[in-house]
Design goal:
Radius of gyration: 19 Å
CATH topology of the largest domain: Rossmann fold
Number of helices: 11
Strand content: 15-25%
Shape: globular
Order of helices and strands: EHEEEHEHEHEHHEHHEEHEHEHE
Distance between the termini: 40 Å
Mean pLDDT: 92
CATH architecture of the largest domain: 3-Layer(aba) Sandwich
CATH class of the largest domain: Alpha Beta
Strand order of the largest sheet: 10-9-8-13-11-12
Number of strands: 13
Structural class: alpha/beta
Number of domains: 2
């Protein structure tokens, strides 16, 4: 059985310490504003705090998917070392990143047909994608093959729940992640929406709350209602520079679930995702009931 490397992109919003510990290779999305282009590289080139401060001060970032060449060069380096590749990819419903990766994959396979490159679209982003990366490493360390990990992910990705709330719907509207009609209604009524990533990996509105406190409580309720085998699960919480509220969400979830989960990871939302969520975005990710059942 050939060895393989686990690969991802920076939409996964993993903590940089974890990325370094695992030697995780990744493709970088970019974020541009004020005439500058920054790599989204888990906060190394542009700090998350600086990014959200800049957005609060009025900048309008634009994001771009990784280039075909970036994927080609990184895939080639891995394949040339004699390894296969398992790429855990951001949802195609949110980014065109998989398209760049697929073009690069085809180029590599023309040169080295013996290589194997598996691309798994996990139909979410941010720490939901990150949780799948962590699961892949766990399974690999248990001795599972790349095919076994791919089978697990394809069979279980609809159980990967993603729920979120945002302070300002304009960011989702501007980036085309939410319809103008839905955004305008929410803005006019001062509603804090409850959003999910649906079965197609796209943003959908599933509820509304009056006020931030209610919206955070709703996220906790959804976790409580939908998580399965909680003691075996990692819960991911990402935030757009609102750590206190992320910690409050963790506290409420812990009180409601009443069992100790395997781990709770809290991290910033990176620029690639944060451009569309804006400052104050708050999201929770976990394995539970199929997302078609809502």
């Amino acid at each position: 059985m050939r060895d393989f490397d686990i690969f991802t992109d920076t939409c996964s919003d993993l903590p940089i310490d974890y990325v370094k510990e695992k030697g995780l290779q990744f493709a970088r999305l970019t974020c541009s504003y004020n005439g500058q282009t920054y790599y989204d590289d888990f906060g190394q080139s542009l700090s998350h705090k600086q990014f959200f401060d800049d957005v609060r001060n009025g900048v309008v970032p634009l994001t771009s998917q990784p280039s075909v060449d970036e994927f080609y060069q990184k895939f080639k380096s891995i394949v040339d070392s004699g390894k296969d590749i398992l790429y855990i990819c951001v949802s195609t419903g949110l980014s065109g990143t998989e398209n760049s990766a697929t073009i690069a994959k085809d180029m590599i396979l023309e040169e080295k047909p013996e290589a194997k490159i598996a691309i798994v679209n996990v139909l979410t982003a941010s720490l939901g994608q990150g949780i799948m990366v962590m699961k892949a490493f766990e399974m690999k360390e248990e001795g599972k093959s790349m095919d076994e990990i791919v089978d697990y992910m394809e069979s279980n990705k609809q159980r990967l729940n993603t729920f979120m709330t945002v302070d300002d719907l304009n960011h989702l509207k501007r980036g085309g992640r939410l319809s103008s009609a839905a955004a305008i209604i929410g803005i006019i009524l001062h509603i804090k929406p409850t959003l999910m990533i649906d079965t197609e990996g796209k943003v959908a509105v599933i509820g509304k709350a009056r006020g931030r406190k209610s919206s955070i409580n709703k996220l906790a309720e959804l976790v409580t209602e939908r998580i399965e085998n909680a003691e075996e699960q990692i819960i991911g919480i990402c935030h757009g520079d609102c750590l206190e509220e992320a910690l409050k969400l963790k506290e409420i979830i812990s009180e409601k679930i009443k069992v100790k989960v395997k781990d709770v990871i809290i991290n910033f939302t990176g620029p690639a995702v944060g451009t569309h969520g804006g400052p104050g975005n708050l999201a929770v990710f976990f394995m539970g009931r199929d997302r078609s059942i809502i």
